[in-house]
Design a protein that fits this description.
The complex is a heterodimer of chains A (201) and B (598). Helix content of chain A is 32%, strand content 17%. Chain A contains six helices and nine strands. Chain A has a five-stranded mixed sheet with strand order 5-4-3-7-8, covered by helices on one side. A two-stranded antiparallel ribbon of chain A has the order 1-2. In chain A, strand 4, helix 4 and strand 5 form a beta-alpha-beta unit. The longest helix of chain A has 22 residues. Chain B is α+β, with helices and mostly antiparallel strands and 598 residues long. In chain B, strands 15, 16, 19, 20, 21 and 25 form a six-stranded mixed sheet that branches. A five-stranded antiparallel sheet of chain B has the order 1-2-4-10-7, with helices on one face. In chain B, strands 14-24-22-18 form a four-stranded mixed sheet. In chain B, helix 4 packs antiparallel against helix 11. The chains are: A alpha/beta (201), B alpha+beta (598). At the A-B interface, strand 9 of A face strand 11 and strand 12 of B.
Amino acid sequence: MHHRKPFAAALLAAGLLASSATAAFAAGQVGETAPAFTLKDAQGKTHSLKDYKGKVVVLEWMNPNCPFSDRHAREKTMSALAAKYGEVVWLGVNSTNPQHRDFLKPADHLTYNKKNGVGYPVLYDESGSIGKAYDAKTTPHMFIVDPQGKIAYNGAIDDDPSGGNAAAQRANYVDGGLRAEKAGKDPDPASTKPYGCSVKY
Amino acid sequence: MRDVTASLASTLLAAAALLLAPAAARAAASPWSENGPSRVRLVTAWQTAPAAGELRLGLHFRTDPGWHVYWKNSGDAGYAPTVRFTEAPGLKQPELLWPAPNRFDLPGGLVAFGYEGEVVYPLRARLESTAKSLQLTADVDYLVCEVDCIPYRSTLTLTQPLGPPAPDPETAPLVDTWWARVPRPAVDIPGVRTATVLESGQGKAVLEIRLHGVQADPRTADLFLESHVLVDTGRPEARALADGIAFRVPLTARVVGKGPAPGTVFAWTATGLTPSAGRSGAASLEARQPALAAASAARVGGAGTDPDRGSSPANRSGALLQALLGGLLLAVNPGTLAVLLAAACAWRAAPWSAAGTLGTLGPLGTLGALLAGAWALIFGVGSLGSWPLGEPAATAGLAALALLVAVALWGLIPWPRPEGSAVAALLAGGTAALLALAWPAPSLTRGLDLARQQGPSALATASLAGALGLALPWLALAGLLASSAALRRRLPSSQEGVRRLREALGFLAAGCIVWSLYQLSRQIDPEGLTFVQLALVAAALLAWLLRRPRRATAAALLAAGLAAALLAAPWLADRSRVASSAPAVSTGVPERPPTRNQ
């Protein structure tokens, strides 16, 4: 009986190591388990990825001071998609470093969201650790997490970085990916090169 | 009073004209489009440009300190500029070229590739015009970043007068300087050998890129990879080699389980180099090649000491196999088929076509094919470094050969005699192998690319393997015919039957001519193409004239004329080459601008 304690401790240690190892190695690759997070949104409410297990989750790295992220907010690209796929959980993530001049205080972010019709929560990742765990590079940088908690899509929102084409002519990868998920299939393409400003870690 | 008013009015008019002129100002550059911390304009090297030939333009950017614009792979963020020209008569859509980039490290471990301060992206275009001037209008979409990023779109216009060439003293040196900074393909530089080696194991992968025959300081040389759909690339580490430099780049698969495998093609640019003494100065090189497998598996993370790890038995055999398979696939093309079947008929029809004779003829035909194929591959491809044979003279020569075969099959000129002889078999084999080379051969190219990275001996053996692949169908056919009397009986036995089959096969050869002419149309200008076609038609006409029995001297003259017409085709093609005009302004710029830039 008394030798179970060290064994349990060893098991716990191994478990911790394994989970941290997952977090360390996982870098947003399609097919990997999506790194876990617990973050507060602009209204102070806490969101954890595990709360949404069993649902499709979309993560959108955003920065209102980046022209690309801002353009999509104004054009309602993301908010329209979020509304179209109502059963999908859409979360914005802002990994901007608080020392950076692009940083927006939560209250200002809420005003911005309201002005642009952004109804989904925006999570604050001030340390940048979640952005790094996913290897988020740009704003916007999109991830689709499938109901089993695996990353199904990693990349750009669409194929038009400069926004020169009409919305109808752009190939929206997230729209296609969500449609595929709804039909029980894998998004195709599963990975594209994201465009935008660099994330301001 | 009227005089004063008149002269005042004319002075005012002249002044007004001068003031209104600036927009049309210098022919050699459009006005600057000022966009925040950046400005952009279109420039040309000419005050008056030649109406036919290569037009050298440039997209000239100047940015405030700290702001940059991007390379074709922008790095982790940003995007490269795009240019769209409005249709202009005689102008073939210009191609944007990329000078050697710089690396910018961003906070958070991110990286950008591009240019800060000033850059001219060269634009290469072909012009065939009869007008006195050319109106150029370009829509430019670009992104300029410092800490923030700002996208801009500008429309730039410039009117280029055409006529006797006169370079512009201000813009020509500017354009030439930045043309010289476009990386040259490493295959074009004699004495430089490159290898791309992939090491993968334990879920990680490292790409090692080696350049031999260059001088470089690992502290200042740098490596840039083009975006790849399968992987994200990390920061390269440079180390010196005895005769060059090597870079190691960590790779991460974008999708788990779908990492790169040996054979995956990578395109890269190495900067901060000097080719070995005696070569013309080129500070950056680029290459696009399939990756070799590392000699020992899973050797990831350590710098190897073996100087030529790329050349392992596994890689050699991989290259050989690909070349062999490529040659085999290539053998199945209309031209080879036509010659093969016609020769088979000849064997069938020969009065002494016993199994034993076929047994001799088959290998001889194979030998002919092998020799011709090896010659073409080693000397043609090995030195030119590109496939399909990119030289217009070679393409036109193949068209001429196909024409010769077609007229022979149509009976206009005698089929090599005596039929069924060793000489005829050798000629047929050689012809069939040469005709095959006109057709695209991706497998063969890959095999040769893999072999080229492993050294000259590897390339030679792979070329021979390719030639063997080309020749194998002959052996197979000879073997089948020798062994199967039933098969021999299926070939037409009567003179009439053979003649009709040959004439039908002539059309296959004619198909080869059409294909070669299509390839040629992409390599030379329309006038040159027309002259080549005229030469071929003349050859066909001379062949037709030869058909009727004539006196010996007349026949000899006609035959000489036929030979001359066939040789004229490649000569005319070579004179009409497209992208090799030397710049009139010589500032030490390499004569032939790089041809590969995707």
